[in-house]
Amino acid sequence: MEAILFPSQRCPASPLRWLARLKNYLLARLARPFPAAEAAQRDALAERLLDSYGNAVLRLAYSYLHNLEDAEDVLQETLIRCLQAQPTFVNQAHEKAWLLRVAANLSKDRIGYNKLRGHEDLDELEGFLIAEQREDLSFVWEAVKQLPVRYRAPIHLFYYEGCSVEQIADILSRKPATVRSDLHRGRDRLKAILKEAFDFEPEIP
Amino acid sequence: MSRKYRELMEQVKLTPAMRQRVLENVRKADRSTKPRGLFRLHTARQLLSVAACVAVLAVGVIALPNYNRLLASAPSASSESAPAQWADTESFSSLAALNSAAGLSLPELQPPFEAQQTEYTLLFGTLAQVTFTGTAGETLSLRAAQGTDDVSGDYSVYDQEQTAAVGNATVTLKGTEQVVQLAVWQQNGISYAISAQPGLTQEQMLALARQCR
């Protein structure tokens, strides 16, 4: 059969192999998948991403924005960006890191937008903790909320997602040394508020 | 701190209502977005020159090897082909005509739904495709071509993938936990693929594969 769909197919004339691959690639793009399959596959992809990483993305966004409505918007936009970009992932960790990076960037944009808007949104988590009379957690949340924007994601990714300094650097597009410094400064700020009431395990390397 | 912070963040979670809302909005946004692909290159001003080079190369690479064949197969009065969507697509009015053009002997599949429309297409002169569309929008497509390469054109990663034996062929079934959406196999020097949307049971898909033996 004549090579049609896949770039990996070989052309016997080796000097023309790259041309044959280009042709195959173009034909593969033109020969769309089966009718109606594409939309269903994209829906399935959105569902899989949401079920696999929805909570992680939502929580990272919440750590920035302190508001569920904004965090949900960030989650939604993150999925849309992923469907539009359709990046190739080498593994699940890469996939999750990509989504968290997009969510972090969108969250920072949202903070800027909210500042311009002069809008102060409801902090649902605070309301929940008050309703449940969880003073111990309220105390921690109040301290975390006071962190400058720059320290929020490193602290969240380190203490909640359990990311290493290198992973955080990759997600936030910062140097590892900068992340380490941000983590130390963020933790020192929390310590100043929380005093010795809480341990700060694990140690920042 | 770590434990308390973790406990805090566990309170922030995706609810079923939120999940449904997000998926619905993502679907709407996805449908209203023009498909991305090679042809978006023209929108990037800095890549215009690259796109132009690729286009020239592509036309040359596609057209030159087929030039003689295109000359030889000038339209004749007896041709059953309808006006093609593009140069390498040819439509036929019957399965027999498609089989004759492709050099195959595909069976008349019986889809597990009432087919409102059936299309017979030959792609690139070698890849036969039969597509059934049901009254509720469901589709079933069979692709076949000489050779052993995967002819599905479907690059998706499915949640579920398993194999089943049909005669002396091994059929690869792909889909979700509930339904099978793609079957791919090779038999007697012919590569087959069946795609179904929204999907079929494993038994239905394997029954269709058996008809292609």
Keywords:
A: 205 residues; mainly alpha; 2 domains; 0% strand; elongated; disordered N terminus; B: alpha+beta
List how many beta strands of chain A DSSP finds. Answer: 0
Order of helices and strands of chain A: HHHHHHHHH
In which range does the helix fraction of chain A lie? over 70%
Read across the widest sheet of chain B, the strand sequence of neighbours is: 1-2-3-4-8-7-6-5
Radius of gyration of chain A: 23 Å
Oligomer: heterodimer
Which blocks of ≥5 consecutive residues of chain B have pLDDT under 50? 36-42, 74-87
**Annotation field: number of helices of chain B:** 5
**What fold name goes in the CATH topology slot of the largest domain in chain A?**
Rna Polymerase Sigma Factor, Chain: A
Distance from first to last alpha carbon of chain B = 64 Å
- CATH top level class name of the largest domain in chain A: Mainly Alpha
Domains of chain A (count): 2
Fraction of residues in β-strands of chain B: 25-35%
Assigned CATH architecture of the largest domain in chain A: Orthogonal Bundle
TL;DR of this structure?
Chain A has 9 helices and no strands. Chain A has 205 residues and is mainly alpha-helical. Chain A has 2 domains: 37-122, Rna Polymerase Sigma Factor, Chain: A; 134-198, Orthogonal Bundle (Arc Repressor Mutant, subunit A), CATH 1.10.10.
